[in-house]
Model the fold of this input.
Amino acid sequence: MLRYSLKRFIQMAVVLVIYATLVWFIFYAMPGDVTMKFIGNPKIKPEAIQKMRVQFGLDKPVYIQYALFMKSLFTGNLGISFNHYPRTVWSIIAERWPRTVTLFLTAIVLYYAVGFYLGKVIAWRRGGVADYTATVGGIMLWTVFTPWWCLLLIWFFAFKLDWFPLGQFVTPKVWMLAPVGSNFVFTRMLATGLFGPLAILVGWWGLRKVVHDSRTRKWLNWGVTAGILAISLLVWANSGLGKYALDILWHMGVPLIALLTIGFAGSMLLMRDSMLETINEDYILTARAKGLPERVIRDHHAARTALLPVATSFVLAIAFALNGAVIIESVFSWPGIGRTLVNAVATQDYPLAVGAYTFLGLFALIAHFAADILYAVLDPRISYKRGEGA
Amino acid sequence: MWKVRVKLTAKSLRANWGMFAHSKLGPIGLFLIVFFLLFGLVHPLYLVYRGSDKIYDPVVGFAYDLLPEGNPHPPTLSHPLGTDILGRDILGQLMHSTAKAFMLGLIAAGFGVLISTLVGSIAAYFGGFIDSVFMRLADVVMLFPLIAFLVALSAAIEITLFKLAIILAILMGFGGTTIILKSQALTVKVKPFIEAARVSGGGHFRIILSHIIPNVLPLSFLYMMFGVTTAIFSEAILSYLGFLNVRMSLGIMIYTANDSGYLIGSRLGTYWYLWLPPGLIISLLCAGFYFVGRGLDEVVNPRLRER
Done:
């Protein structure tokens, strides 16, 4: 495993360099350079433009510029944004990233849960009415033109029913006198969302070691879950930040509904196909022959094995959330990393664009790596020992 | 001899159609595709029937007949789906853009699948260095989100519809599909008839072209369907975000309405004819190709068959 990880790390470094090079060439190596947009401006003299070129290092040959870029990349210096001068690219990414993660992690967890459950059920009743309805409806939503669907949802939920606000991610009126910035709240929300479930899982795991009677354990499990939920709710209520968190959650409403409706079909169909494959296995026949109830066979025998590819795709879905982020954040004016990318490209803010793309490439790489490792951990049939597999 | 062949082909076609129709998804998709294909093809006839090019041209037309009321105009008899903010007939735009979306999707997915079938077969047949180069390349291409990449690319080059089709074809051709087609080609490569062909003196490329590729083609065709969905969707999204240099497309129609502020709050309901029809067509078109893909999946993929 260690050897495999090491090999993968080297591969990842190579891929990252290739990727960063590609991004750099796309943005910098085109005809003309960033000073070109001032050329038609009579207020900026040619001398000033020349000075700017020297400052940016644009007068140097391309390979030196490239070497400089790579050097600053590996020393963690992504430069300073043009549009948000004098803020560094890092600080902008650090500001926008938690917002994207909060929205998309919530959505992905929700739609994978829904997709897992639906896929399990419809595969068991293959060819039934539920199967057709869910498959047809799911594919319709899966391939729906995202901005169009979002507009429909905005019109229905935010305007017709008036349940949710239109766009943006906070209500300025509520936040006017806020003691902290929105990112302070975002990061705390994210921490609650990550560590709460983790604490619950650890609690369950601990109970599994200590309590052996399954019925008692079930009740204790519920107790642990309720306890941790209550504690986090209490902490939020007493911190004085509760209303700000609620405001953010309220703004997350329509984007979450949009992501949930669009995304669930992917995991549902994956789960369905995986289940159909598992159902044909011999051990399912054995379980039937033993006379186990259908529900037990479905949930405990088939679904657990069928979960494998779904679990891997879950990690990959997080990496690919960026695709959705570009679209969803633009439609809902959610100021996350996707919208930052679109704006940076549209307004020719090259340092920000290159920095954000590089950062996201790195993130995608790590997610892919995590997916491989997760697959090996979950599936004992796969091993990354010497001489086997990749 | 040929009679037997025709009979055999007809028999296997019937059996496959049975499986395809059994899932019920395939026929739905086929219906949607044929419907929109006709819808797109009918555009020249629509123009002829309407007569006046000045009014009904999808790009430069202007609804002079509605001039006193101004544009955008809700549906009337002469403009069944109304006019857009620049006074152009929406129904005509829809037909024109649907035809274009078909062309883009088929060109992109067709070339993409052509590349990935060739690359996958060659990689599987020769193995070794060629194989690992193409597989690592596919890994890199797969790694990066398509839409975000295309957004970045639009900063460097002016992307027209044809260029977009080629870019998509290259990205799809060397991406994940290659890996799947290669594994399919691998299962063909170890079959005895390949050995027999080699023993009887068949050259490498003869074996690849006439023995391996025909056996990979059904799967290629399946992935082509998914490719069409991806291509149409990408074009629409990029147009919607305003990163494409395209005069008229379904995405552009929504972009134009959105960009001039017709899609804010209560206006969404008033100006439904600006955004509802083009979005619906994109969605149904993508769904149609996806349905056909799923239907083919049941035919091609033995793992999904009922026992």
Summary: Chain B has one domain: 32-304. Chain B is about 75% helix and 0% strand.
